[in-house]
Amino acid sequence: MAGNKKHVSYVVSVLLWLLLLIHQCILGRGGGGGGGGGGGASSSGSTILMDRRLRYDFYEKTCPNVERIIHNVGCDASVLIASSGTNIAERDAEINLSLPGDGFEVFFRAKRALELQCPGVVSCADVMAIATRDLVNLVGGPRWEVKKGRRDGLVSKASRVGNNLPQVNQTISQLITLFKSKGLTILDMVALSGAHTIGFSHCKEFMNRIYSYNKTFDIDPSMNKDYAQTLRTPCPKNDHNLDPTVVAFNDVSTPAIFDNAYYQNLQKGLGLLETDQKLFTDPITRGYVDSMANDQHIFFSYFVAAMIMLGGVGVKTGSDGEVRRDCGFFNS
Ligand code: HEM
Ligand SMILES: *[C@@H]1O[C@H](CO)[C@@H](O)[C@H](O)[C@H]1NC(C)=O
Ligand SMILES: *[C@@H]1O[C@H](CO)[C@@H](O)[C@H](O)[C@H]1NC(C)=O
Ligand SMILES: *[C@@H]1O[C@H](CO)[C@@H](O)[C@H](O)[C@H]1NC(C)=O
Question: Name one Pfam family in it (predicted).
Fold first, then answer.
């Protein structure tokens, strides 16, 4: 049904923002939706995590209803997510990923609504931080207070997106190094990876695991065989024109719910990405996976703590950067 398709692509585009925000935060130097520190000195190390100029009441005088305005726009999304929940609870979804259509709409609409009430006041980086929090909460995840006062970067990230994403072929120790360089611990890394309890991945991200893992194994031996088989249907071998609209859920058991099933999946070899599964096979991180799998409250509390840390990584504040009027364009 066309309607359902639209809903799904709507959800995906919101998740995509979360993905880009998070992935860039972690990898881009001074990253984050409003980051973009460019080539500035990086000698200061990564121990300064929360910029003290970020505050809960940053917009108290200038835009007191900021959270409610963003939330109200997001309410449309909640209806869509709820109504499409059963439709997308299939193992593999065929979705329309062409984002220019209604893509990014929640985010842009939230910003436009803010511009009507408090023009030029609330940064896109803060809108994204709040919208991300709302989204996680909307799909069953925890809620936390977002510190505000981020400024939007003046360096375009577009050209850096590709290179800045964490790679599925990285080793756990490479990932640990990466997260550590942003002041995030191993525990933070495992907890944040729990974001893969929602969202999708394209075939190319796990093709090698289901067809040509290495000389000994076709299928990655850490992967559940039946699971690998089911993934082969939507992602055919030697298909050099993999359909970009075909994706698989990152969390095969409860794809639309923010819960700890992602970790329970890992215990059963049901991790989709190689890096997901390695969190369980690698003894360095396995204990954390087990504790999150055992207790959802533990997952939520570590996730929140890590998201709050992440929300302060590499942000611009004060008079750095700008407050973009249109999140798609620099002001000048
Ligand atoms: C630990 C290293 C990580 C790796 C290697 C990784 C890799 C990936 C890959 C390859 C995809 C699929 C992209 C696509 O096919 O379009 C993905 C999706 C996603 N990732 Fe990660 N990721 C990592 C950590 C994180 C973290 C820390 C978060 C958030 C806190 C996160 C949030 C997401 C979300 C929400 C999606 C789904 C996006 C959508 O449905 O459009 N990831 N990730
Ligand atoms: C995706 O949506 C766009 C417009 O929203 C449409 O033009 C395009 O044909 C759709 N693609 C698929 C594969 O359905
Ligand atoms: C991962 O794969 C990409 C290409 O897909 C390659 O450029 C990169 O070097 C690989 N990284 C590791 C750690 O193997
Ligand atoms: C293939 O991968 C498995 C599991 O990671 C490993 O034990 C095995 O040594 C690998 N084989 C080759 C030929 O690299």
Answer: peroxidase
